[in-house]
Amino acid sequence: MSTKIKSNASSVTFESVTKIYGGSVTAVDNVSLHIEAGTLVTLLGPSGCGKTTTLRMIAGLEMVSEGRIIIGDEDVTKLPATDRDVSMVFQSYALFPHMTVGENVSYGLKLSGNDKETTREKMLAGLDLVGLKGYDERLPSELSGGQQQRVAVARALVLEPQVLLFDEPLSNLDAKLRRQVREEIRDIQQSLGLTVVYVTHDQEEALAVSDQIVVMRNAEIAQIGTPRELYEQPADAFVADFIGEANLIPCKISRVEDEIADVSVGQINLKLPSRGLEAGNARIAIRPGRMTLSAKKVSHSLPVSLIKATYVGNHMEYLVESDFSDIFVVSTEMNANLPVGKTVYLKFREPGPVLLPME
Amino acid sequence: MSDTTFQSPAHQRAAGSGTNRTVLLWLIIGIIGFTLLPWYVQEDGLWSFYWLQYGYPFEPDYAPAAFLLGQNSKIWLAPLAVFLVLPFTVLGKHKTDPVFAKVLLVSGIGGLGWLLFQGFAIGIQGWQLGILETLFGPLGDQQYGLGYGAMLLAACFLFMITIGAAARGAVNGDIFVVSSIGFVVAIVGIFIFYPIVGMLANALRDNEGVYSIFIFLEKFLDRKIWGLGCLTANVGCGVAWNSLLLGVLVGASTTALGLVYALVATRSGFKYGRLLRALTVLPIITPPFVIGLAIILLFGLSGSVTQFIANAFDITPTRWVYGLPGIMIAQVLAYTPIAFLVLIGVVEGVSPSMEEAAQTLRADRWTTFKTVTWPLMRPGLANAFLLGFIESMADFGNPLVLGGNYDVLSTEIFFSIVGAQNDQGRAAVLAIVLLTFTLGAFFAQRRWLGKKSYSANTGKGDGGAHPLLPRRLKWPVYTIAAIWTFMTVVIYLMIFYGSVVEVWGLKDNLTFRHYVDAFGLKWTENGLLWVGSAWNSFWTTLQIAAIAAPLTAMLGLVTAYLLVRQKFTGKGAFEFGTMLSFAIPGTVIGVSYILAFNVPPIELTGTGAILVLSFIFRNMPVGVRAGVASMAQLDKSLDEASLTLGANAWQTFRSIILPLLRPAILAAVVYSFVRAMTAISAVIFLVSAEYNMATAYIIGRVENNDYGLAIAYSTVLIFVMLAAVGILQLLILKSSKTRLSES
């Protein structure tokens, strides 16, 4: 078949966008954002942080209270969803239950003024793309959850929109299917070069699929960066704790030179990038998996007392108590047999802790 | 509003002709109204076209506005032409051009405003407003009510306003949504608010047409309304007190009985609980006064029970049932199923997991009921009480049939307008008193139950099973339910039996005479003759109900769509306005309609249209309720998916919402059909010789003591409606089967 689904990927720009509900509730507060054409950007954050509202404003399902939204080089701020060249995959898939799979996928094509033949060709190409060849005569209710999800993706894709939006697309799938479907979405996005904006509250999902992640908190952007930047260089305690888990441990910066800080955590001295901090009290964020515990004393280690050891299958989880805070440690060393209630020795691994301000 | 613009969004934006096409369409309709159709109302109703043969288009009574102006007559219509031509100047402009919106708004508001102003200012006797008379001197001309032409032009101006508002960005700039809002607001304004306000004005006016607050106070403070004579002396109390007492008694009794039934149906382990639910169909298919008739057959002077007791104990039969006891028994029988319907939702809505939680916390069944179930049901009980109160207050048929000397507001309104008094002012005052009571109950209901009045609380609780009734409740509840069920069965048997008895209490032989009298057919050389006396009103009723039903359902559905799916400023007021008619008793609607639509600018009395309209606006809340309930079940992201796929609100409404709501629409159509057939209170004011309705005809037979025919006719109506409901069930069953199992 010659018909191919193309991409009309465009960039998306938010200029100081604010959304206020009912005159008092600020859902999105003065957000500015630029999404490059052809990239997959994830909006990540806890529920109520404004990520879904942001997505719906791109779709035109919510209208901004202040600011401008630009898609490609067109100001779409005032355009309703109908008139925007954006399509969306919904959390509930929102397949029309009274239409067959083929009719669902053709729906937008027909409304866009395609003739019957083009509509059918594109519909078949779209189903082919998501691996549902030959399913066009079925009703959505006859498909599994994963298949319904793919129909929803095909229905949005065939319109060759400037921007494709995903609202928590995997939350209704079981855990094993999630990994597979998210890979497929990423593959299609990369092979067609689509601009995709993706909302999720699952940080692992966000890390796996994104070119860029926008972490949101309380209607504002907490940090924007690549998955690696966010994981390894979180801007603050919120981001550090939201993306992966992090222990926040108080520390002291004694000196900063050439953007390298001399940091002391208990008896351990570390040299860390200062990230704009100056001498004084600060905190370090350290991932539970980037520490080792040993029963014997080793150099550059902290003596801590082991409170709890939990076996969870593919790793061990430890809770230890130090002089300044409780620390959570994950270890893949299953046979260490560390003594609960006794002193053990904690050591940071590389790449290790990150400096954060005191707040 | 057209779905012809199947273009890609980008293309549509570039061309931008979609809006202008809609403008053009409405302008053409406006021009047809102004230049082709008769401007004034036609005496023989909307469907007669005799004007085509009698001097159209030059005869002034049949002439279109343009021809009137051409003959230099009715010159006050001239400004309308200006407002109609104005929008043509912006037809080529893009919808985002501010001039486009401005011109449409000016022309629409100006045109509609002037149309209404001239309609109210100039009537059959020339100037209607004294101030204009003093300003301009006598007019020396007159005009009748607005007709086809004016109707179309008004619609044209209305949609100019809505398109203009949409172009300015109201409700995301969607023409369909803005126009629907404008349309609903306009017709609710004309057919609910205008008559009610007109009635208020009537109450303030004496027979010479002078407005005075004293006239109102004099009529309002009448001893016949508020007198308390029954407490001290042996005279009747005022009608307001009578109504209030009746309403409270009926509200409390129906709530108690409804709760008993609901408990039996859901918590007794009673196998035939589903059968009990069939009871809820009864009030829907029974004309309200039929229960009253059956009560007379049982307890009236020559009623079976009365005669039996009189013979057995040698007592003189009395007319005790006429008055408060009779009305109350009839209303409680009639409205208990409504309370049952409400309370079954309430009882099921109490989350079983809470009751299970209480039981695991060592509460026994009685304690669980007392401390958890009962408090959670209380708001629902209040709701059922207020519903029963409103229904009782608004009931007209039973007090008319059974009232005796016990006067209530609804019948008193009727008698002050049709009786020898013909005192419209008094009718208006009484209607205001009645309206105050029902609105009071309505506000109380909203206050207690928040804003959920539209959505029937029928949702099942979360998982788990309801516990059975505690033993000390079980037997009383069973006994009461059994007694009342027996009563209901007897009543319905009486209705059927009464229809085949020659003359009740006098000649007890069985006969089909009444059916033959009402629905007789005869074969003659000229073919089939419908000789039965009921045929005329029967066909009229079917016809009017059949016209009103789909319109009611459609209006209800569109309103529900706006309420559930759209956000717009003033939505609270919009919701309130559309719900208001629920609290307006039929008698009040009836009185206010004949007062408002008997004179220009809108003359409708004596037509079939006024019946259709009264049904639409009486039953609209039912349609809205059905629409809201089923639309709330539809995932909102279905609409949103459609919108993001490039459909506008109209296309979404048509291709997603309508097909998915088919069962709800069907139900709303049948329900409003059936309600239109059983209605009496508003109808009795609005029927005419030409358009007589079944219920009004039956009441007429009852007043002539022709019970046999009245009951026979009622029986036929009940079976017709039973059939309608049955067909509905089949259709819904079928459509749910063909759609397979939707997740």
Descriptive notes:
The complex is a heterodimer of chains A (359) and B (743). Chain A is an alpha+beta fold and 359 residues long. Chain A has 2 domains: 12-237, Rossmann fold (3-Layer(aba) Sandwich), CATH 3.40.50; 249-356, OB fold (Dihydrolipoamide Acetyltransferase, E2P), CATH 2.40.50. Helices cover 23% and strands 35% of the residues of chain A. Chain A contains 8 helices and 20 strands. In chain A, helix 2 packs across helix 3, helix 2 (101-111) packs parallel to helix 4 and helix 3 packs across helix 4 (145-157). The relative contact order of chain B is 0.09. With 743 residues, chain B is mainly α. Chain B folds into 3 domains: 1-168, no CATH class; 178-211 and 535-743, MetI-like (MetI-like fold, Orthogonal Bundle), CATH 1.10.3720.10; 225-470, Orthogonal Bundle (MetI-like fold), CATH 1.10.3720.10. Helix content of chain B is 68%, strand content 2%. Chain B starts with 8 loop residues before the first helix and ends in a 5-residue tail after the last helix. The interface between A and B is large, with 38 and 35 residues.
Q: What topology emerges from the helices and strands here?
A:
The complex is a heterodimer of chains A (359) and B (743).
Chain A (H helix, E strand, L loop, with lengths): L11 E10 L3 E11 L4 E5 L6 H9 L6 E6 L2 E2 L10 E4 L11 H11 L4 H14 L15 H13 L5 E5 L7 H18 L3 E5 L2 H7 L2 E6 L2 E6 L1 H6 L4 H6 L4 E11 L2 E6 L2 E6 L6 E7 L4 E4 L7 E10 L4 E6 L4 E6 L11 E6 L5 E3 L3
Parallel strand pairs in A: 3-8, 3-9, 6-7, 7-8
Antiparallel strand pairs in A: 1-2, 1-4, 4-5, 9-10, 11-12, 11-14, 12-13, 14-20, 15-19, 16-17, 16-19, 17-18
Helix pairs in contact in A: 2-3, 2-4, 3-4
Chain B lengths: L8 H7 L2 H18 L29 H6 L7 H8 L12 H24 E2 L2 E2 L2 H7 L11 H20 L7 H29 L9 H8 L2 H4 L2 H4 L6 H29 L5 H6 L3 H4 L2 H12 L4 H10 L10 H26 L2 H9 L4 H30 L2 H6 L6 H10 L5 H26 L21 H28 L2 E3 L3 E4 L2 H7 L2 E3 L2 E3 L5 H31 L5 H13 L2 H11 L11 H26 L2 H9 L4 H12 L1 H17 L4 H4 L7 H10 L3 H32 L5
Antiparallel strand pairs in B: 1-2, 3-4, 5-6
Helix pairs in contact in B: 2-7, 4-5, 5-7, 7-8, 8-22, 8-25, 8-26, 8-27, 12-17, 12-19, 12-23, 15-17, 15-23, 17-19, 18-19, 19-22, 21-22, 22-27, 24-34, 25-28, 25-31, 26-28, 28-31, 29-30, 31-34, 33-34
